[in-house]
Amino acid sequence: MQAAPETEQLEEAAPRESFAAFLADDASVQQVRQCIAEMGLPPSCVHRGDISTAINYLEKVRSPRALMVDIAGAEPALTKIQHLADVCEPGVSVVAVGDRNDVGLYRDLLGVGISDYIVKPLPAYLIHKAMNGLLGLAEVANTPLSHKLGKIITVVGTRGGVGASTLATNLAWGLANRKHRRVALVDLDLKYGACGLMLGVKSDSGLREALERPVRVDELFVRRAMIPCGERLFLLACQEKVNDPIVVDPLALSQLVSILRKEFHFVVLDAARENSTLLAQALELASTRIVVVDQTTLSVRDMLGMREAYRLGQDDSRNMMVLNRFGESGKAGIAAKEMEEVVGLRFDSIVPFDAKSVVFAANAGVPLLNRRGPAAKAIEQLAEKLGGHAPLSRKRWWQIFRK
Ligand SMILES: Nc1ncnc2c1ncn2[C@@H]1O[C@H](COP(=O)(O)OP(=O)(O)OP(=O)(O)O)[C@@H](O)[C@H]1O
Ligand SMILES: [Mg+2]
Predict the structure, then answer these.
(1) Total structural domains in the chain?
(2) Do residues 104 and 61 both lie within one domain?
(3) Which CATH number characterizes residue 48's domain?
(4) Which amino acids bring their CB within 6 angstroms of ligand 1?
(5) pLDDT confidence of residue 146
(6) Whose C-alpha lies nearest to ligand 1, atom 14?
(7) How far apart are the first and last CA of the chain?
(8) SS3 helix, strand, coil % of the chain, rounded to 5?
(9) The whole model's pTM is what?
(10) Which of 45, 117, 119, 233 has the most neighbouring CB atoms within 10 Å?
(11) Region 229-238: what's the mean pLDDT?
(12) What ligand is nearest to the CA atom of residue 171?
């Protein structure tokens, strides 16, 4: 079991550049390098490439605060930018560069959250103007892209042991390692939490302090508290004594989450049922709520109770229902179809009972998705669904950055 590294290590492990550019021709590369040199930025942050190169690059490293991308020849440009928006971390400002002097395209680009659009050959004064905006040296329009916030996924079980923590932990791991997103996993089960054990790390991150004394919580506190579980997955968890009274400040969770969603593509909350205030808040803050059930009468009863108390019906598009441990009791379990009828909900995912892989992985503290098996496959598909690139839809696509 590995302990959390020292703060210095943590911060070094995840540096965030201030600027990167991806330009497809030598003349543009030279021109931008010259302009940024005058602003004290190194030439190495200007890369030869286009928007696809930028997308590949951003899938592997942390997003810079500001980005310049060449969209010349990218067809369709708006789809490519949507893909770029998916891989960008929250809070990135983007300037596009292209070869079409087209007011319609310019308007579309601003509409989808790009800060500015410059036509090649790039005039130095326009690069300077755009760079000043990107680096916060001048006012820029309020663009949806730079205000993007991470999505909050709250996972809750209808009763003990249905597998909510297994789902939360492995979805978080899948989003981080299969979808290359930066993910914060918060284990709100402060005494009996299982996420750390499943990931093979010590659950000792200062989460209790964050929830009891939110006045002490800021970006630095959170960055120091997070336990790295690989390159893109970070855990906030604690393991308090079972008889220790914990008094959670009612404002703490929303404050913590608002900090996390500025830094992470996804914040996954493993919501324990024991603390009903925390549970209600975790569900209220969620962009997506995943309710986990199993094929038992108790689970059906509690699903009905929770649906009533927390509005967990599928009339709210945020709600998803997952049937876990499917097939565990053979014919003795309530049939999936019958469950759907009784609770009036459809299952968004069915995860088979798979003791061999799931229990082995949990006991060994290794990610389930690294193993083959039907449960791993189903959870991976769910992570794919949650982290995928949404196709261009009828609604304005930048709304994907909203809850
Ligand atoms: N699909 C599955 N197949 C087999 N075992 C599973 C499956 N899902 C979870 N488990 C096992 O069930 C047990 C309970 O899982 P987990 O801790 O995720 O449930 P939980 O709903 O979070 O429970 P709690 O209410 O205690 O927080 C664990 O031992 C886990 O490995
Ligand atoms: Mg749990």
Answers:
(1) 2
(2) yes
(3) 3.40.50.2300
(4) 157, 160-166, 189, 194, 324-325, 351, 353-355, 358-359, 362, 375
(5) 60
(6) 161
(7) 36
(8) 45, 15, 40
(9) 0.78
(10) 233
(11) 94
(12) 1
Does some domain include residue 7? no
Q: What is the pLDDT of residues 82-120, one digit of tens each?
A: 889 888 888 888 999 999 988 888 888 888 888 889 999
Backbone φ and ψ for 60, nearest 5 degrees, come out as: -105, -30
Beta carbons of 320 and 290 less than 8 angstroms apart: yes
Nearest CA residue ID for atom 9, ligand 1: 163
Residue ending a domain, choose from 134, 168, 189: 134
**Residue 341 within any structural domain of the chain:** yes
**Strand pairing category for 227-228 and 233-236:** antiparallel
Separation of CA 348 and ligand 2 centre (Å): 20
* Residues 58 and 88 both lie in one domain: yes
Residue at 273 is within a domain: yes
Centroid of ligand 1 to alpha carbon of 353 (angstroms): 10
Cα–Cα dist 151/387, whole Å: 10
Instruction: Give the ligand with the smallest distance to the CA of 159.
Output: 1
Residue to substitute in 165, 186, 302 for testing ligand 1 pocket (most ligand atoms within 8 angstroms of CB): 165
The ligand whose atoms approach the alpha carbon of 164 most closely is 1
Domain that holds residue 233: 151-401
The protein residues having their C-beta less than 5 angstroms from ligand 2 (an ion) are 164-165
CATH of the domain at 178: 3.40.50.300
